[in-house]
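B., you asked whether I could sanity-check this one before it goes into the benchmark set. Here's the sequence:
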Amino acid sequence: MSVPAEKASAFIIQTGIKDSDAVPILIDNGDGTWTNGRVSRAALLAATPATFATTSGTINADFANTAIQMLGMTGSVAMQGTGMDAGLRAIVYISNTSGSDQAMTFDSNWHWLGTNYSAGVTCYNNKVAVLSLTAFGTTAASVVAVYVAEP
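And here's what the prediction gave me:
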């Protein structure tokens, strides 16, 4: 079975894939069942990341749509989430080219792996960071977060 790239937010279950290989995945059918599928590596790489129209203020990482999202900061940001459901992810590439350091806060219900960033972070000018969010349910309290930034 072939799977469109937009359905590839399921779990990739094999590593070491060659460029021409199809990647085996598990697809959430939305009813508590899963289907085995395959998606080409090229289709996964061709998926276009979503770019946030708003670049400061409250911003919602969208779990229900494009898994990879890009944020070009122009001011301080309060990061929230929307569209959470078990197994969905949102990966946010953050760049700050505003000309000055900017503050970023996060939903206080998220659970942090590694360093606890619940108090927020400073996004330094001309640096990039990645925020990886995984939902294990439908609420903000089900989200596990990891944040790493360029030194």
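One thing to flag: The domain at 50-149 is CATH 2.60.120 (Jelly Rolls). Otherwise nothing jumped out at me.
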